[in-house]
Amino acid sequence: MSAWSKQDRFKALLSGELADRPIVSGWRHFIDKEQNAEDLAATTIAFTKKYDWDWVKINPRATYLAEAWGNEYDFADYQTVFPRQLTTAIPAAANLWDLEVKKASGTASLAEHLEAVRKIRQGLPETPLIQTVFSPLTVLLFIVGRSAYVTKTVFGIEQPVTLESLFKEHRAAAHHALHAIALTLADFVQELKQAGSDGLFYAVTGTAHPGLFDEAMFDELSRPYDSIVLEAASYGKNVLHTCGAYAQPGKFNDYRIDGISWDTIAEGNPGLEADLKATKVGGVDHGLFAGNDIKRIEQQAREALALMKDQPFILSPNCAIPLNVTDEALANFKNIVLE
């Protein structure tokens, strides 16, 4: 191949093949530009063009999937990237039976994000795009106002329903809810294809941490419903993200995914040398961008590229870039793959 396009590189690397060079991208929230399709699309297009990213992880507001079942949030009051949660569709575990399968095109928050994808595709016709979709287990936790991480992140719900009530006392109802969410996401994922998405950035968030769910509980509550969503997304290239410490990326070796993203420096996690089947995505501590630590960003990026030089690899931060990142840090990061 004489001239590689962005799509060529993206598809080759996520098919387990080498390209003419590694590719790079970064993503962050713009919390003042994520409440409607027009703003999200315009900001995503501008951010992508500014740094000429090789591919795009569309970064919607963290709550958009939970909103599909009626959760309400205060978008004038954020704690990091999470708006204050005002209501939950599931105030008690017994209400899990009330969750129903939704049609994406007829559900406001999902239709909004389908429109955003269409607009982003129009603005970036040649750039690979993958939409962020949370796992059904993560969405259920967000709906009830529980953290999908070991550390507390839900803002606004002081006394959420307990995990024991959700998954032990009302186990059958929890499976009903997870199935309804999975079927809704599967429909959404199919609609994403028509809107122009090239696949998913599929986030199981921190649910793989053994301090939140042990192996048996994760295998029962996440794995079957992940399969429903990922099978619906088999038309594209899909990157799974397992967040935070003790993220166990090897747990997903049998998942129907093409790329695997995890925090390569967090406690309990392997580095890029991990024995993983999917193409590795990451390599740089996202926290370094908050301090504009350009020397360490460049050092980690070069070390990652050197380690992975003979393997398909996608350079990126290990998670979302902090809100206070500088233009200088992002520009220098992008240019490393061109050296």
Would you kindly provide a written description of the structure presented here, covering whatever features stand out?
The chain has one domain (6-338): TIM Barrel, CATH 3.20.20. Helices cover 35% and strands 15% of the residues. It has ten helices and ten strands. The longest helix is centred in the middle third of the chain and has 25 residues, at 171-195. It is globular and about 55 Å long. The mean pLDDT is 96.
Total beta strand runs: 10
Question: Mean pLDDT across all residues, rounded?
Answer: 96
The H-and-E topology, N to C, reads as HEHEEEHEHHHEHHEEEHEH
Shape label: globular
**Gap from first CA to last CA:** 21 Å
By secondary-structure content and strand pairing, the structural class works out as alpha/beta
Question: If you consult CATH, what is the topology?
Answer: TIM Barrel
In CATH, what is the class?
Alpha Beta
Task: Flag low-confidence runs.
Answer: none
Q: How would you describe the oligomerization state of the chains in this entry?
A: single chain
The percent range for helix content is 25-40%
Biggest β-sheet strands, sense, barrel? 8 strands, parallel
**What's the number of domains?**
1
Trace the largest sheet across and list its strands: 1-10-9-8-7-6-5-2
* Architecture per CATH nomenclature, i.e. the level-2 architecture: Alpha-Beta Barrel
Q: Tally the helices: what do you get?
A: 10
Based on CA atoms alone, the radius of gyration comes out at 19 Å
Strand content: 5-15%
